Amino acid sequence: MSGFVLGGVFINSELTVTQQIAKRFIRLYIPVFFSLIFSAVLIYNFRDIRLSFQAVSISGWARSLYNVSDLFSYSFFGEIFFNSMIIGYKNGTVLDTMRLSTPGLLPLTSGLNPPLWTIHTEFWGSLLVLGVAQLYRRVSRRTFWSVFALLLYLTGVGFYSLFLIGLATYIHRDRLLDSRRGMATTIIGLLLLAAGIYIPSCVSSAPFNWLQDRFRSFVWMQAFAGVQIQKELGAVLILAGIILLPGLRRFLSTPFAVWLGKISFGLYLTHFPLLFTVGVGTFVVAQPHMGYLAAALLATGVGTAVSLPAAILFHRFVDQPAIYLSRKAKLKRSAVVLDSPAKSTATP
Description:
mainly alpha
């Protein structure tokens, strides 16, 4: 989806390359910065509860997260300024997908907000889309699609191939989004949507592990595991289903759906630290009285209940100002300018 949205922005923008990079950086980094501060405050105030949770939890995955030994240490500032968006985390960085060694990176299990590894992917994927969009504006279509095919090969089965697929979808949007289709197209769209939901959630990842082993020998960027390929396929199928279903697209454009979309970024950045502090605190207090399962369900409910207002506040006081500042970002026009004679031919 990011490749689709950003493709339209970058192809049609009159800003310089430097300006667009600056705008994207500001747009993403301000929310990332404040989400880390928010997480640090929560972890500091719930540090004793966290230790109690590790003693009673039967989830190895949950116990492995938030292993922060010294909150305000060198790693804290390193995560805020480098790991969270620029460099990434160990086993969660663009360098891993390129088969480069990353021995000195902060482990994801020691991060203040583990989902931020995806923002790292989003930032570098944005720059990939920006570069390809400039190529689209400057060269012939034959040359562009030849280079695009090469880039799709190089990005292989890593997350960055999805950015390219999104960009290609934007370029051909007029044909793909044509609502003058019959029942057969609707049925295909529903089947694609159902498959996109079913495959990542219900199908075994064993076939995708096999695919990962096959791809390993001839593509550059790799998936972290077969399950990543599985989820990537699900994402592509869901996007394809939405494209073929005009009614669903109209529903996703309703005011309520748009509102959910607006607060979703804040929800994404705040839900994890809330679940592992407020949610965990609820579990530790309730577990001796209610039993493990009931306490886990209560903790999930409480964590969810506090996440929604937190997301609304985060959107109002962090995300919206970040969007405003990114739009106001201006740099000297001495940077490389996007305008080119190829602009007039920027059609599929």
